[in-house]
Amino acid sequence: MTVALDISVTKAERSKLEDINLENIPFGKYFTDHMLEADYENGSWKNVEIKPYQPLLLAPSLAALHYGQAIFEGIKAYKDENDNAFIFRPSDNFRRFNKSAERMNMPVVPEEIFIEGMNKLIALDKNWIPAKKDHSLYVRPVMFSTDDMLGVRPSDNYKFLIILSPTGPYFVEPMKILVEENFTRAAPGGVGFSKNAGNYGGSMLAATSAKKMGFDQVLWTDAFEHKWLQEVGMMNVFFIIDNIAVTPSLEEGTILEGVTRDSVITGLKEMGIPVSERKISIDELVAAYKDGKVSEVFGTGTAAVIAPIKELNYKGFSMKFNTDNYKISQSLKTWLNDIREGKLEDKYGWMWKVG
Length: 355
Ligand SMILES: *Cc1c(COP(=O)(O)O)cnc(C)c1O
Hints:
Layout: E1 8-9, E2 34-41, E3 44-52, H1 63-67, E4 70-72, E5 75-79, E6 85-88, H2 90-103, H3 111-124, E7 136-145, E8 158-167, E9 175-179, H4 197-212, E10 217-221, E11 229-232, E12 235-241, E13 244-248, H5 259-270, E14 275-278, H6 282-290, E15 294-301, E16 305-314, E17 317-320, H7 328-340, E18 351-353
Parallel strand pairs: 1-3, 9-10, 9-16, 13-14
Antiparallel strand pairs: 2-3, 2-8, 4-7, 5-6, 5-7, 6-18, 7-8, 10-11, 11-12, 12-13, 12-15, 15-16, 16-17
Helix pairs in contact: 5-7
Bound molecules: pyridoxal-5'-phosphate.
């Protein structure tokens, strides 16, 4: 289905880029000159525009603020030495965004707005993509309900935005993780597989309590038994056990289907490492650790890509891992970077050319 959607473009009078040093910029702090905005009204998307990055004017009764219909995505764009810009796997995020939309009873966003709009926006702000190793442009699509009345029901009106933030190397210190036994991130039948704002809001207290105890994040367990491993913070988790990569399977709907997770699974298979997507319990992990079979534990996600874990604490029992010896996760990181930098053939069509 092709909808003829005109995207109007209003350019910023002056670029803020002159004021910003793109060296070692913190994640998510600066935004580019332009943003995309579209409105869903009376059953269709309209007012699709790219315009200078600016605040929104919203009613205090805005439905999203009260009832939480809000979803988002996180994607990265890169630039090569020849000034070509690429978006990493945007179609996968597009598909996932609309899955989240359906779960949250929100309208789907057409490809012409999500992908084409993103393409146009990035092309316009291309100078903001740092053409340096480990640098990228973080792309944040977001949609939320905009009815201005307090009746509890799915909103009739929605706003879709895309904003862009240049980002430097996201250096991740190996993490110390608490296996979470009280709080729950997701339950079967719930919204854990969708990238909705509330999942993040609901997870913060667990992370804060863990930090007070000296940990960086939590490893979520299932809602019923607090036994089946789920995700680490807001990242998917992998365990290398006996040279097999084990990661929790998706079928219960409690795991976010990470694009990095999928890329890593592809990479592991290319490297000849068997991948097992299945249920894995904390008891199995502890037993394997005691047998000396767990060689690597890491999280995966767009922002950090691969985040090594140096310690997992379960009921006071501390499992320690020497992250300096992590070979598989290191190779995966190099492999992914090489694809992104064009040093390796893009066999899977992951690099989507802007322009
Ligand atoms: C976004 C997210 C991930 C990672 O997904 P990517 O597509 O790899 O960025 C993992 N878990 C949760 C809960 C998330 O919200």
